[in-house]
Amino acid sequence: MSNDLSPAFADPIADAQSCFRSVLDAMARPGHRHATSGVSAPAPLCDAAAAVLLTLADHETPLWLDPAAADASVWITFHTGAPAAPPAQAMFAMALSLPDLTHLSVGTDETPETSATVILQVASLTTGQRYVLEGPGLREPKVVAIDGLPPDFAAIWQRNHAQYPLGVDLILCAGNQLTALPRSVSIKDA
Amino acid sequence: MTDSARSTHPDPARRRWMAVLARAEADRIAKLLAHCGNLPAHTIIRGPEGGLVMVRGRAGGGGSAFNLGEMTVTRCTVRTETGFIGHAYVAGREERRAELAALVDALMQDNDRNTEVETRVITPLERQQMERKAERASNAAATRVQFFAMQTMRT
User: Fold this and answer.
1) pLDDT of B153
2) Which of A5, A80, A126, A148 gives the lowest tally of CB atoms within 10 Å of its CB?
């Protein structure tokens, strides 16, 4: 066991409930930012990504961890108990750069809810490339700025969006901020 | 636990002291630990938190395993300022007991403290547990019934 193991949520029940509410709201209103609190993440994860993992992952959710984030694997396994899995079998993918979405589970027509959710750590949710989001949960198109996505992200996303009701969902994390891009949202470069 | 499973354990020494700690009372561990001089400060990594584990049993040598029932277990993980991580799983809901047991587990991994903690905490606890077990066994042995009559009838 690694000797740099650090604690998880300061207040496990309240912090996890509040983070769950943030993820729920973020999924319901794509592109809106929420702050998480209560955890100081192990390197190289940001606080928001660690909070989302602690809230959503457990021993019943196979997790694919980006090899670039391997330093955090002991911490994640200890606190969540999530078994490691290859991308195709993972219910959650924790990534530091956008993984190939076609390698992840998109669910089946009978059970679209079994698709993978990608927790993607990016550099910023306030600066960088601007995108226009449109879809359920947004009364009018919303412009967001995200730094840390590949240049052709809008095209990659539209291929994922086109599979609706199948497809993967994305939770973006930077610092202690998170936002979500559910498969139902359509994305264009601004 | 069979003897073969016992010998394949990766760290039999640690297994022994963790078993002793899991059976010890909180007050007793605290009292013995007070004789160990200055202890390093420790932070809690997880817990102490209660939960349920399913206890499984097996009747007879060839019987398949069945669920005997659930029991409450309290677990705790601590890290000492010297960098050692101790774990404890104890039966029941006593959180202080789990924390103390985890702390002693961390101290036992520190080679500078291992001998002292072993002689002042683990050995006395183990001796007390053995005595209690022997006493119960002898009390039970006193009520043992020998079916001489049936044995005689068979031969």
Assistant:
1) 61
2) A126
Asked if the Cβ–Cβ distance from A5 to B49 is below 8 Å, we say: no
The interaxial angle of helices B26-33 and B123-142, nearest 10 deg, is: 140
In a domain, A87, yes or no: yes
pLDDT above 70 as % of chain A = 98
When the pLDDT of each residue in chain B is averaged and rounded to a whole number, the result is: 88
Query: CB distance B46–A3 less than 8 Å?
Result: no
Instruction: Please give the average per-residue pLDDT across A156-161, as a whole number.
Output: 96
pLDDT digit string (tens) for B65-102?
A: 899 999 999 999 999 999 999 999 999 999 999 999 99
Q: How far apart are CA A99 and CA A95, in angstroms?
A: 7
Residue A26 domain-assigned (yes or no): yes
Which H helix or E strand runs over A175? none
Which sign does the torsion angle of CA B42, B48, B54, B59 carry? positive
Rounded CA-CA distance A131/A158 in Å is 12
Cα–Cα distance for residue pair A9/A27, rounded to 1 Å: 22
Residue A74 within a domain:
yes
Residue ranges covered by each domain of chain B:
3-154
Looking up residue A137, the CATH number of its domain turns out to be: 3.40.50.11310
For the entire predicted model, the pTM comes to 0.84
How distant is the Cα of A52 from the closest Cα of chain B, in angstroms? 17
Domain hosting A64: range is 12-189
Q: Residue A115 domain-assigned? A: yes
Q: How far is B24 from chain A (nearest CA, A)?
A: 25
Most B CBs within 10 A among A1, A13, A76, hence the mutation to make, goes to A1
Asked if B85 lies within 8 A of A3 by C-beta distance, the reply is: yes
